[in-house]
Amino acid sequence: MKARRYLARTVLGWAAGVLLGLGAQAAEPIRIGVVLSTSGPAASFGIPERDALVLATEHVNAGGGVNGRRIELFHYDDKTNPTEAARGVTQLVASHKVVAIVGPGTGGGALAAGPVAERLKVPLLAPAATIGVTDRKHSFFPWIFRVGVDDSKVVHGILADMARHGLKRVGIFHQEDAYGKAGADYARSVAADLGVEIVEVVSVPYNAIDVGAQATRLRNARPDAVLLQVASTPLATAYVKTAEQIGLKAVTYAGAAMVQKTFVDSVGKAGEGIRVTSIGNLAHDPSPSEAKFAEVVKKAGRTPGGWMELIGADAIMAIVAAAGKIPGEPTGPAMRDAIESLCGFAQYTRGKTCLSSDYHEVLNESSLVITEIRDGEFRTRK
Amino acid sequence: MFQLLEYGVRGLLSGAVYGLLALPMSLLFLTTGTIDFAVGAYALIAAAVAVTVGGVAGFAAGIGAALLAAALMALVFVLLKRRGNEDSITVALASFGLAVGIASLVLWRWSTQAFVLPSFATFWDVGGIRISPQGFINLGIALAMVGLLYVVLYRTDLGRMMRAAAVNPRGAELAGIPVTRVQCGAFLAGGAVAGLAGLLIVCSSGLDYTIPLPLTLAGFGAAIIFGIRSPLRGFAGGAAMGIVEAVSAGYASSVVASLVPSLFVLAVLSAQFFFQSRFSGDRP
């Protein structure tokens, strides 16, 4: 009798398990939009971000998804064009009913798409470094989050490191656009507080093929350190080569845009000792959590790159964590509320952040690392 | 004063590359009466192929790739001509399309990789100014190409045919000049020169897929500033732009430094408007 009851229970349990399993299998996927610049000038960020978030999503799905539901991605290339970015948000919500969007990846795109997201009630997780993206004075602020670290925190970290190492006379070499100029202006405004002096500022057009004159002008100001506020690898390379040729001996610091293998390869020996700020250090000195994502990348047969991969993956991890908190059907507003309540989610990048109704930074300065190029690798400075 | 001289010398060296880019513009305008806006894209594809193949073979392959791209443009030109569309603006717009196509091809194949080759680790001290040997190589090659083009255009039969083809295509054809072939030749020669410029840039600084339009505009600016009809003037225009750029980068505030070269082009062009006979001498 006992045995029969046991058998019945086992069979029932098994059947229920199968049914539940089937239910989970058949559950609607969670629909997530991706609006990144995979062509145009910002493609150097958009492509690795997209590739990484696809890998992270596959990894999550392979592990059973979120509450038994798969994550399905819908992609839109904004071509580094803010108008296209806003159009992409509209289209993904209208045609694919997405409940959250990773992107747009440029500051201009994020600012253009913000009002659209507010109207359609879908949260944006923008991997954009432009300071104004998460400005609270925008009416769409509740609907926009930044996955990344804004430029001002990067510049602040660099100037503080210079001061710590006694490099008091600072020159700035910046590209002529919003990114370059905002960084240079910010550096000027905080230099005195951090105990450094800005002795010269030179600017270069984004596509300059020669920076001899600008480097000469910097050299004549005799700086101890030079901050490269540029996002173009050829431009940074041209600076490093030219500085060596004209005898400009200052220590070079660069922002996160230069954490790229192409930069190290391009500058060769002249690059040894250059200090580059990074978000995490995926490729060379990963933290334990970063190493986990490096494994995911390697399993897919690729080489771990830089912080673009990390922020792409963490955008998905934030969405996974938020969706996991929602008991019923995830909707745009429910996702927004859940993202805003995240505190210490399972992010791959080192560091920890707690969001709130007036703090929309999915990553923060605790994820920043200052690396130094040694033997062609970005080693974390102790 | 020494500083001014240093900025001037650096400007001249970088201006040499602008001058080199002005050559295809002048050459094509002289033979077809149109402008090839894909010049910067030829430089890009040459650089991309050269870096990928590597070594001396890479340089040859790079020039080959630029020639191939220019051949494509020549084909488009011939097809447009066959369809009776000889408006020079149509060809110019088509070349814009080709430039975008080449940039997309590079982005698709090489992604956003920067193309750079290691440069000389040494430098030469010229009167207290430290200059990379690459700078002199650039200047030497640019001067050699200008000289070569000048001799071909103005001292050979081929040159006469090329000029006749633009001035009066129908008349030239009646006189037995293979106008279309000569014009295609001009596209190819322009492609090769632009490819060469791309290789020099790769060796001296570096470039990526965003370079085509800025390079084309630099070449175009250098070509028109003192008159597009002469390669010598194109080179002078390039050198002048380089010098003005360097001096303004050296002295002007960083807010206006990059504005000055454009103002310079504008000023020279407006001056030409008022003193036309003095500046744009050799009219057709």
Please state the average pLDDT score of chain A.
Answer: 89
Number of domains of chain A: 2
Task: Identify the CATH architecture of the largest domain in chain A.
Answer: 3-Layer(aba) Sandwich
The proportion of strand residues of chain B reads under 5%
Give the class of chain B from helix and strand content and strand pairing.
Answer: mainly alpha
- The domain count of chain B comes to 1
| Count of DSSP-assigned helices of chain B | 12
Give the biggest sheet of chain B.
2 strands, antiparallel
Biggest interface, CB < 8 A: A-B, 42 and 44 residues
Low-confidence runs of at least 5 consecutive residues of chain A:
17-25
Along the chain, the helix and strand elements of chain A come as: HEHEHEHEEHEHEHEHEHEHHHEE
Find the count of extended strands of chain A (DSSP E, 2+ residues): 12
- The CATH homologous superfamily of the largest domain in chain A is named Response regulator
The DSSP helix count of chain A reads 12
Describe this structure in words.
The complex is a heterodimer of chains A (382) and B (284). Chain A is an alpha/beta fold. Chain A has two domains: 29-150 and 287-365, Response regulator (Rossmann fold, 3-Layer(aba) Sandwich), CATH 3.40.50.2300; 152-279 and 369-380, Rossmann fold (3-Layer(aba) Sandwich). Helix content of chain A is 46%, strand content 16%. Chain A is built from twelve helices and twelve strands. The longest helix of chain A is centred in the N-terminal third of the chain and has 25 residues, at 2-26. Chain B has 284 residues and is mainly alpha-helical. Chain B has a single domain (2-111, 129-279), classed as ABC transporter involved in vitamin B12 uptake, BtuC (Orthogonal Bundle). Chain B has twelve helices and two strands. In chain B, helix 1 (2-32) packs antiparallel against helix 10, helix 2 crosses helix 8 (179-204) and helix 5 packs across helix 6. Chain B is globular, with a radius of gyration of 19 Å. The mean pLDDT of chain B is 87. At the A-B interface, helix 2, strand 7, helix 7, helix 8 and helix 9 of A face helix 1, helix 9 and helix 10 of B.
